[in-house]
Amino acid sequence: MYPRRRMPIARTAMLVGATSHVARNSARQENMAAENAYYRDQARQQEMQQQAQMQAQMQAQQQQQMLAQQQAQQAQQAQQQALQAQQQAAANEEAIRRGIAQHEEERRRLEQQNQQPPPYQGQNYGPPPGQNYGPPPGQNYGPPPPQNYGTPSPQPNNAQAVMTCDQCKSSNQVTSLFCSNCGNKLAH
Ligand SMILES: [Zn+2]
Q1: Which end of the chain is more exposed for a tag (fewer CB within 10 A), N or C?
Q2: What is the pTM of this model?
Q3: 156 CA to centre of ligand 1 in angstroms
């Protein structure tokens, strides 16, 4: 901003040949003023540089603080999200557990309505699948099937086996004493 001034040596040299004492004095004063201005400028530039440095440092610090704040916020957000996810998972688990309980309750209610014993869900004391403790196929340890050795002997003749009631004419067994229909005493 402020261009550096050169040390005003050249000007002094120009005035060396001057005879006027006044002119020499004037030149010396001018020289001193220029020198002063030079040092003032330098001091001002240094000050400005220092200010610029301080400003840069402050900006860097502010940026670091902002970055730290952002990171802290992000960490907090991540923590909150994790917490929410955890709560959501717990809620889901609870919902599933409640659903299963409701389903179980409904099942019991239906079973009671049907008056059926609940299905046994534990162990099964029957033979394990694939094993059969019965007789092997093709062998039978039970009683032999009834055998037929020919036609059974014919029953006694109907005329002999049947006694006709005198009163109602219904047929009765020979061994009967009374008619099964009317109760009349059968004549033997
Ligand atoms: Zn009869």
Answers
A1: N
A2: 0.31
A3: 22
Q: What is the mean pLDDT of the chain?
A: 80
**Residue 130, by phi and psi: left (phi above 0), alpha (psi -120 to 50) or beta?**
left
The tens digit of pLDDT for each residue in 163-172 reads 999 999 999 9
Q: List the structure tokens of 91.
A: 């809620």
Bridge partners (DSSP) of residue 185 are 178
> Taking the CB of residue 115, how many other CB atoms lie within 10 A of it?
6
Q: Are 165 and 187 in contact (CB under 8 A)?
A: no
Please give the Cα distance from 159 to 153 (Å, whole number).
17
Q: Report every protein residue that has its C-beta within 5 angstroms of ion ligand 1.
A: 165, 167-168, 179, 181-182, 184
- DSSP assignment string, 108-138: HHHHHHHT-PPPP-S---SPPTT---SPPTT
Q: From the CA of 174, how far away is ligand 1's center (Å)?
A: 13
- How remote is the CA of residue 178 from the centroid of ligand 1, in Å? 8
